[in-house]
Amino acid sequence: MGCVNNRIKTSKYNILTFLPVNLFEQFQRVANAYFLFLLILQLIPEISSLSWFTTIVPLMVVFTITAVKDATDDCVSICSKLPLQSLQQSILQNEKWMNVKPGDVIKLENNTFVAADLLLLSSSEPHGLCYIETAELDGETNLKVRQALPVTSELGPDIRRLAEFDGVVVCEPPNNKLDKFTGVLFWKDNRYSLNNEKVLLRGCVLRNTDWCFGMVIFAGPDTKLMQNSGRTKFKRTSIDRLMNTLALWIFGFLVCMGIILAIGNSIWEHQVGAHFRIYLFWNEVVNSSVFSGFLTFWSYIIILNSVVPISLYVSVEVIRLGHSYFINWDRKMYCPQKDTPAEVRTTTLNEELGQIEYIFSDKTGTITQNIMTFNKCSINGKTYGKSVFINVLPKTVPVDFSFNPLADRKFQFYDHSLIESIKLGDAMVHEFFRLLSLCHTVMSEEKNAGELIYQVQSPDEGALVTAARNFGFIFKSRTPETITVEEMGKLVTYQLLAILDFNNIRKRMSVIVQTPDGQIKLYCKGADTILFERLHPSNEELMSLTSDHLEEFAGEGLRTLALAYKNLTEEHFKEWFKILQEANTSVDSRNDYLAAAYEEIEKDMMLLGATAIEDKLQEGVTETIASLSLANIKIWVLTGDKQETAMNIGYSCHMLTDTMNEIFIVASHTGMEVREELREYFALQALALEGDLENEFVEVACMCKTVICCRVTPLQKAQVVELVKKHRKAVTLAIGDGANDISMIKSAHIGIGISGEEGMQAVLASDYSFAQFRYLKRLLLVHGRWSYFRMCKFLCYFFYKNFAFTLVHFWFGFFCGFSAQTVYDQWFITLFNIVYASLPVLAMGLFDQDVNEQNSMDYAKLYEPGQLNLLFNKRKFFICIAHGLYTSFALFFIPYGAFYNTAGEDGKHIADYQSFAVTVATSLVIVVSVQIALDTSYWTAINRFFILGSIAVYFAILFTMHSDGIFVIFPNHFPFVGNARNSLSQISVWLVILLTTVVSVMPVITFQFLKEDLNPTLTDQVWLNLIMKQKPLQNYMRRVYRTNSRRSAYAFSHQEGFGELITSGKNIHISQYNYFILLKSGAFLKNC
Amino acid sequence: MAVNYNAKEEADGHTSGVGVAGGGAAGGAGKSRKPDNTAFKQQRLPAWQPILTAGTVLPAFFIIGLIFIPIGIGIFVTSNNIREYEIDYTGTDSSSPCNKCLNVSWNSTPPCTCTINFTLDQPFETNVFMYYGLSNFYQNHRRYVKSRDDSQLNGDNSSLLNPSKECEPYRTSENKPIAPCGAIANSMFNDTLELFHIDNETRIPITLNKKGIAWWTDKNVKFRNPFGTTNNLTALFQGTTKPVNWPKPVYMLDSEQDNNGFINEDFIVWMRTAALPTFRKLYRLIERKNNLQPTLQAGKYSLDITYNYPVYSFDGRKRMILSTISWMGGKNPFLGIAYITVGSICFFLGVVLLVIHHKYGNRNNSADIPN
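ok -> structure tokens follow
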């Protein structure tokens, strides 16, 4: 074992590595590297066509801003600062989590997180048992049992002996298998083999166990949890990648222009320049036309580099930061219960929120609250309980349980007739609740009088027992032989004769008890399909009635269980008990014998009724899922939980409906079998598929409307995400709340953490976090959509603006001997992208809205342009470039025509270089301002201020820099003295500016008008609708009830073995399989 | 443009949906992390949302058309009314009197002179501006443009003796700093043009005003002679040498003190480099003497040229231009024609779009929005 401490690094940087790592990451951006290259070029005097400061100042600004932002993004303090007790030299010491090393013996207390992978030594419970909840690891909500080795459990709470514990553990190297552990403990010359049952994994929570001691086996990054979480990757959005590609293309374009101009220069130098030498010397270095062309090439690269201005990247970052703040500030994503606003943890991904195609969601804690409530029941053919959907109405008063001092206050029920039946003494109703109070594996604990605490191993069971408790059948305590129940106020002790334990095949559990008056009864609860087969024939009528009710319950997405009882005669029982004991003692296939014995007695039962438990969904989950599906987002649920529970949740949140007539389940355990099942499926569509299993899985899964994968390990979750990313090239989002979702959150394009009750690990690994699943709708449909829309508009405009700005130099090249002379003043070039034209487009990128938030939510289809990448793609980019090219053409040639060989209105200069520069620059500023005014669809005061302000600032700076005062101080740097006032006082200059503006803008308006008039997009229509003040179209979300359902909604997050544990305390064996289920809809068959 | 203040509508509260009802839970605590309810943070800033509808676009096109066409006609007519007379005196044509001077070089002594006679058919009524025009002359070449020292030209004494490196290779000559340094100054136009009115075979010289041809700011701010205790320019320029191509130093450009040295207006005009390879620069002013006579009557004139400036080697052309000026500058038909064209296109587009809108317009059936 290596000595790794428990510090887990989830952050990218530390103080030392920050600068190099951050710079390296920044230079990974093609554009940044390219700017540095340009900067180096500018330092060569023969090439430098621009002052060096025009590049280095913005570059420094960019790097500083980005670095500061990255540093704040990367939340440094990840290590938990929770105190923890550890043993050193027989003294309990409080230690921080991060200081725990392998070999330490540490003490854990009830309801605390396990800090490292531990070998369980001893615990407060008998036999060295301890209970853990693994929801953080695999999403399963039931408790699991771990048992210490008998030799170590003897150590008990004796600190001195524990401190002297000197066992040596030899085990497998760190790996990511959560359900497997092999190792050997050498202690006191003995060897004890270790397996998964002896270890507590990091991320589990200790439950129902006051304390336990454990020796650290793996700490920090070696723990199975961290082995499962995958590597932190530098996430970049598809727009980022597109921008990098475009930067390369632009660079190619730049090189082409550079070559054209360089060739032009060579020819010019040869044909014209050679004769012009009496006025235009040869430089000493430059002595041939070819070499001159070569130098000119680089000079032009420098001048034209502003087609990809440095400020693009800063602006993009600023816009993303702004959008992030808007998300942080959104009151509609603030959860008052938890006092948690939404939080953006990675600020560089916002626009990708508008392009999501696949959502991968965790189940437990994300979609469900992990709270089970007893919601309805059917007793002897009569249903009780109101529909889950009606109970939100305030006028429904919950049943008052004040008559019962032991009632659980949190329990609510909305049907008064049931309580009346109980009070009236309806025998069947009593029997029903008696069953619930007897047939379970719950442990109870009465701390103070009237304060009864149940230790449940599955929340379902807890819900049932609690229901019975509230209705007056209070399970008080149990011993291995007895169960004590307070029935309607009087204590009754039942002899517990046998527990016929639950398992996945039997799908039922029974208890056989003897009442105080000697009657022997069997109480059974289980899946209706199983139970109905073993009823007494006389139950026919009740059965059909009950199964109608069950269907109704199932239709509402409730988890159902059928209940039955059977009176046994003493002889019958004794006879059977012998069989049971034989089975119990058999060595081979004991389980088979046991099952047969159970079968034997569980028949001819009398039906009592059925229960319906609601696995409480998070608020608004159904609506959210429905809206997101409308927006054409596919939602996959990935859970470590069992198939039944997963499917049940699928139904209850309407991801699965009965109209999906073809639910396809792949449940094979080996790769080959899965392959065959998938193959079979493909046989239907006569598609010959070769290649990987992965491919087939993705192919099938992606054709499905809904996919639910269960029994997946954390790493498999990430693999599923990677598969879709790889094969579909789609933008994915993963949402989860637990440590088991970290890997998925990290590997998806966007990871969202639910900041739930416990555990911040998912949140810490996520890019966004909020408190409720339902905020996802707003995050995607409003913020994501706006972000994408704004970013695309911003990019379109930005590229347009810079092409218009830069290509003027290209045209001018043909008239200045290809000498790389700039059209504009150097100051204008430096300031244009930073000052004159940056704020209006930033304001648009930050505040623009095409349709308001309400419409964005109502018309989920508005989300589609993002998924199809319609607003900014290569085609759009070329349109922007063409637009920029056209504008630059107008900008250059209109002044050229107007000032060709002419004079001003005072007869003096008008066609001099400086006046020409001022005219073109002023035209440019006005044209781009008018263009941004046309592009802005949401004019806030800030937009108005920035657009008008930019023009004002332009003139202010222009007149300042052309003023006498500044020239006198720096005559070499501001040679344009007096130019503004001389040029801009000429009418013809203004006529040229006006003409240029109209010529540049007119075609754009024409195209835009034609597009909106002839082929309006959905956005335009919604928009116009809004303007015309029509009533917004109502978009009712209708609840789809499952009718005609033949399937059972049986789902029970129960695990076998607890019955045995109760009666014997023996160890148990759990087998886990990994398999996927795919559920698919009928729409698929129509496709093929 | 259609304007819609939607802030109110928003504030009225579409807070249904997933909205969190009220701040009751966290209210009052003061430490709540609930975001502020400001219009800015909630993205509810009041805004107007213009939209391109037929009602706004079509009238805009018609209005632009209706404004631009008259402006264009106005400019066009004005431009056509400008009197302009232009002579190419380069002498490439062998019949030209200046043909003999074609291959002149700098500093050729005695200077080559030639005379060109011409006739003005119409009188020039208002003030006449005399220009020299050069073609194929790349005053906008990068190496040329930057080859000057504005600090020196501004009278800075240290720059005078130590000119900027940008002036290379015209920075020093014979180990002395050149004043004014650089290629622009070195290549200053130095032909002398004189105009005579031929009235009954007598040559009456026309007064050519050499002052007032440069911008006020150039003459008074940008260009200044070096400072010193003396007014004697010769002394002030002590220690410098003349540009290589110049026949005489900068302090001998003119006899008048206020037009000599760096503030010589011919020099200033030359130093304001042209944007395009074909350009004209103001050379002299011919002011109208009285209201009874036109500035230049119709009739015969002769132009005496002292031909110093070689342009033939790089296929350049030299011209003398006489022109009057209007409110929008010198003669140039481009702007007028461009305005008329753009105005017509706008108007035409307006008509086309109107037809398209009425025939195929798709805006009416926007009520049924698919979802």
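Chain B touches chain A through 121 residues (CB under 8 Å).
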